[in-house]
Amino acid sequence: MAERDMIEVKGLRVVAGAAPAAVTEIVKGVDFSVRKGEVLALIGESGSGKTTIALSLLGYARAGCAISGGSVRIGDVDVLSLDAKGRRALRARTVAYVAQSASAGFNPARTIMDQVTEPALLHQLMTKDAARAKAIGLFRSLALPAPETIGERYPHQVSGGQLQRLMAAMALITDPAVVVFDEPTTALDVTTQIEVLAAFKKVIRELGTTAVYVSHDLAVVAQMADRIVVLNGGAVKENGAVAQVLDAPVDAYTRQLLAATRRPEAALETPPQSGKHVPPLLEIRGLAAGYGRLDRFGAPAVRVLDDVSLSIARGSTLGVIGESGSGKTTLARVVAGLVDRARGEVLFNGEALPAQLSRRTPEQYRQIQIVFQNADTALNPSHSIADILARPLAFYHHLRGSAAKKRMLALLDLVKLPASIATRTPAGLSGGQKQRVNLARALAADPALILCDEVTSALDTVVGAAILDLLAELRRELGVSYMFISHDISTVRAICDEVIVLYAGHRVEAGQRDVLAAPPYHPYTGLLVDSVPALKPGWLDARREINAAALPPLGESAGIPELCAFRARCPVRIDGMCNMTPPSLKKLPSGAEILCHHSTSELNRLQTLEAIPA
Fold first, then answer.
1. Contact, 315 vs 477, CB < 8 A?
2. Residue 44 φ/ψ region, left for φ over 0, alpha for ψ in the -120 to 50 degree band, beta for the rest
3. Which of 6, 65, 80, 611 is such that its CA lies 20 to 30 A from the CA of 379?
């Protein structure tokens, strides 16, 4: 190993299973090295071995797996030769780990400070007071709010992006030689992701930390890494500097990953028009919804949606975008009848749709289906795929026996799954396969409208692109309509005809998907568009400089509910107007409607100045 290399992995092999049962090699002779202070990205689709390789740096193999060969060195430590005591001393002290799901990594019954300082105290590296002081310093470096007091909170009292940064503080408090980041921003929306990435990058630079960054997102990797190792099927396909891998990839698989990332927009499809007026498939007028007890005006204690209106034509796709907490999922649940509405109308096929699921007709129930974000929790783990698909066939169409089996096999074929998986349970399927089963279950009802709630957010680039292709094909073949909910703007532009943008439960922009293509747009839409990482090194640093600019001053707001909901974060707000007067409705050149005080020409000027070339 070269003197300056902090990590050296040679001939690493990992197997799943044990004799006399079948043994499968899942990591196949992997080699790479990482210099001190360098960030190496491990990238590839699900099942490529990224996380398995990263965990081997801690001397760990997941249940049912074993490291069967090769060597792993961190500094002067031969990791694979360590006994159990040596591995415990290595973990958190020499090699730290930041998991994908921070919420699963924290104990909900203990304060954040207790958990962040625990590694330093367990390894007896400093006193409790010193650990607390160091934790507060890390909170400040990671741009967390109220660094002096945030440690007194419990995990459920902070946002997802804040919790992810707190997990990084937990990893860094021992001054480890190496930090492994395992998909730490996959579940975050674009604006939160950019904050977390910027905080990670700043701390890595300041501390000179050597890092291994596991991801399936090439645009994120372009901002974080110095070098990239591309993996497929447990083997290294390419190993090179970021610029070389992105601009001049050598391997065909790398080119496939890049092609999936640079996905072209589908052609806009105009639903066929007949001579007579045909009402939209779904129309929502003035919707308000939320949770908790209703007041005397019928408003819920926690208002999630307020005065939202939209329509979906037959055979078309509407994209709903916004940050976490904007009300996207609540909107889908209202349409599905899973959340009551406080006010407003929901019309389906021109007829009023009852708010409660129990008051809907079997036909209304059948025609609106929902595909949930997490297929792991949406599919019964104890049932076979055949049983999962048989249930809606029996419930909606009274199919049983050979007729049900024939239709079940046709559904599997429709979502491009082999008939052989019918006897398997969900645990035996990949993430992409489970999401296809989730979709097949919705299609079993033969619906007119499918509500897709973040159906690709947990999938890697290649698998997610395949699901989008499948949705587009089903739309062409079956004439089905979609409400497609996502925080990924590139995904929405790839599949949707029209878009609405939600912020804090308010519709701030609506129109054809061209509203996302170029300025002018609502300032919040501009923030979302500008927060999508570009496939270009240095983009994050340039974006951070723009975000660091102070917001225009704004005085106290008048007590008028119709004021712009985005004014507290708006980079182009106007004191004396945004905080005093409700904005007027404007129609942009794209055809989109927004509520804003700025003129179209002024928005175009401001947003063109802010744009970072991709």
1. no
2. left
3. 65
